[in-house]
Design goal:
Two copies of one chain form a homodimer. Chain A is α+β, with helices and mostly antiparallel strands. Chain A contains twelve helices and 13 strands. In chain A, a hairpin with a 6-residue loop joins strand 6 and strand 7. Chains A, B: GO terms for molecular function: oxidoreductase activity.
């Protein structure tokens, strides 16, 4: 493991991105978001995603100069076309725009189509709560998981983010519809371990905890079996409907890499106008206190709330441990 | 099993409800909704729920004369107080009101607080798609499931409904955050069977497929383990925030039965204003055709989409098979 200061990581990512042709202002934002994801422990969508992002830029799958344009304005709803621009800045733009609409209407819904991979969905949930807004956000994706009952990849893992603000520890959920990510399969396999529960199917079609066997079949298990499969299908249909864009099977045809041509939904809510800031804080504190007081199971660990451990990471300035090979690869991209 | 004509069931439910003091117009709606849920195969929230509903009415936990009143109007958002009125008619009122707002604004969000059990959440999803609207709906509940890592009931199962219309088979998802319902535990136990996958914890704290053992501990498994637990927590916080009402731990203190004092969210979208009816139909048809063409797993069954089997039930007028004892119990309530 390499030990890397946060500011060093950000500077190297900025260098790598500008060297790939990303404009300085866009590279600055992307370097910050990828650094934050790394610091928050989500290396797969932080530094780990930089080489692939740069590859997509070089292939022309991400248009680093495109900016979102408005397709429709309908009360508190705005539909944007992302023109295959940078997924991170497109998504931040949409989040900020939805906040403006929420300030005006109590809630804002921005639906973004023809965008590219937003990396870690949680980034926009954290962005929202740091500005004092509650949020429901999701994306559809290309097929990367079998529907329940299917032998082949046929639905997206369609990450869903929900967030409620509090200045001392907001609730932030960031969940994909697969029980585990490919990143988790890889890191578990490299440690020579098995998954703690079934995570997909092996070659013979049986449920398995073997990360290598699952990665080989690409038959990830939807979270909650039929339930996560159904939720992925509905998130897909609603994203395509609201953004007037592509559902998963049509994203498959775009062939511009993971997330290229996807739809994203950004619903932001202003607690100031919905009972007030104090009431929102009381809800978050009440839920956290309730969970803290619950009897733990046999693990003996206190019950955690979504966002709790990330919140602690986000307040740390300690240097980060980064995989040696990855760090060398990204440094080389910055030269 | 008793064989009961649909119209007979509805008439008997109407009689039972009016005999319990429910006004004719309210009883008419409730009898229809409970009959439809029974016909759709959801007996637990159809005829099966009538004795408990009538018990709640007799205890004064449901005020059969209360009607929702407006607390706040904010653009496309409306906050209602349900005054512990009948959950079904409160929820239908909220759905209809959200449709009116959606007609005006493209989307409508009605947040309802101090309401009672809405029975089967899917009823309102089906109601929405039959009127041509897409929907995202959910409720919070009292604690009925342990949070992930907890040994005791501490979160709600907080059912979530998502629906996208199509005149020949809409997509309708209706999922609780527990992997199985208590109704499913009971019916599986009565058949002397085991659950197909783990559904909760037994007395020794181990994951179990034994429906009797799980019902005894009341330690239901959240769907997707930590994921369904996290989603339940965020659905709870957002419901309480939007409705300016009670989160799960505060519903626990109300002590007016299951669902008494809960919050419900009704988000309705008008496809006419979001790309148009044809585009919405094309999304639904495209997803269904894609799933129909997918290679099935070892079961060999075609891959299903959420709402598909219910859609077929809804178009049937065949008499219903109803548990003998339950049918006698409900008939006695109607005398």
């Amino acid at each position: 493991m390499a030990t890397v200061e946060i500011d060093t990581l950000k500077a190297v990512l900025y260098q790598a991105l500008t060297r790939a042709g990303v404009a300085p202002n866009v590279a600055e934002v992307c370097a910050r978001i990828h650094t934050e994801s790394t610091r928050d422990g989500v290396h797969s969508h932080g530094i780990g995603r930089i080489p692939r992002f740069i590859d997509y830029v070089k292939r022309g799958w991400v248009d680093v100069d495109a900016i979102p344009t408005r397709v429709q304005q309908l009360g508190a709803i705005e539909v944007l076309d992302g023109h295959f621009g940078v997924g991170v800045t497109n998504a931040l733009y949409a989040t900020d725009r939805a906040m403006e609409l929420a300030q005006e209407h109590g809630m804002g819904l921005v639906a973004l189509r023809d965008t590219t991979h937003w990396m870690r969905g949680g980034s926009y949930g954290w962005h929202a709560v740091e500005k004092g807004y509650a949020a429901i956000l999701w994306t559809n994706t290309e097929s990367c998981m079998p529907a329940w009952g299917a032998a082949e990849q046929s639905i997206g893992n369609n990450p869903l983010v929900m967030a409620v603000p509090h200045q001392d520890g907001p609730l932030v959920l960031d969940m994909a519809m697969s029980q585990f990510s490919y990143g988790k399969l890889q890191s578990t396999r490299l440690k020579g371990e098995q998954l703690p529960i079934d995570g997909g199917f092996d070659e013979s079609g049986h449920l398995s905890r073997d990360p290598g066997a699952i990665a080989a079949t690409r038959r990830l298990l939807p979270t909650g079996y039929w339930k996560g499969s159904g939720l992925a299908i509905l998130l897909d249909a609603l994203a395509a409907l609201l953004a007037q864009g592509r559902p998963t099977h049509a994203i498959d045809d775009v062939q511009k890499g993971s997330g290229g041509g996807s739809c994203q939904i950004f619903m932001l809510f202003d607690p100031e106008q919905l009972g007030g800031r104090d009431a929102c804080n009381a809800i978050v504190e009440g839920i956290q206190a309730h969970l803290a007081a619950v009897t733990a199971d046999a693990s003996g660990r206190p019950v955690r709330w979504p966002g709790g451990s990330t919140w602690r990471n986000r307040n740390s300035v300690a240097p980060l441990d980064i995989d040696d090979g990855l760090w060398r690869e990204v440094q080389a991209l910055a030269l």
